[in-house]
């Protein structure tokens, strides 16, 4: 019973780390990557729609992203969403394609991107701690119902804490790598 709860917690924590690592891809470094625009949501006919569902996004050059909307009338909404986002890019269009030139990051902008990455990492840590809290609650319920003893509950809590520490350490490792990538000149 406790082993099932711990296995489920480890799996959910691994998913939280993986999800956070994917979000790190949306933080701008110095190179053009379509993943930079994954968090952009466009108000498309009154419905919030992810940009990647409205257009094809390509990194045609090392410092240029091109966005080709499926519906040409959505170009203005796409431009507006990009300007209002935290990616720090200015779009330009020719009526059919939106272009995003990716400039070199200056030191101040690099520091801002590091702060964004740290915020994403903190969100990931919060998700991991929420999983720990939920499983701790489940372990307490098992003890209260008499299905496991107090010693088993404490052993389960200790194992859960080890899994939590491991997941947070892995997430911190990904954060350090992302910070190094951002600060690399």
Provide a brief overview of the structure.
This protein has about 180 residues and is an alpha+beta fold.
Any descriptors?
single chain; Gyrase A, domain 2; Topoisomerase I, Chain A, domain 4; 2 domains; four-stranded antiparallel sheet; alpha+beta; 185 residues; 59% helix
What features would you describe in this structure?
This protein is of the alpha+beta class. The protein folds into two domains: 2-25 and 106-183, Topoisomerase I, Chain A, domain 4 (Orthogonal Bundle), CATH 1.10.132.20; 34-101, Gyrase A, domain 2, CATH 3.30.1360.40. It contains five helices and six strands; from the N terminus they run H-E-E-H-E-E-H-E-E-H-H. It has helices at 2-24, 51-54, 75-84, 107-144, 150-183, and strands at residues 41-44, 47-50, 55-61, 64-69, 91-93, 98-101. It has a four-stranded antiparallel beta sheet. A hairpin with a 2-residue loop joins strand 1 (41-44) and strand 2 (47-50). The radius of gyration is 21 Å and the shape is elongated. The model has no long low-confidence stretch (mean pLDDT 90).
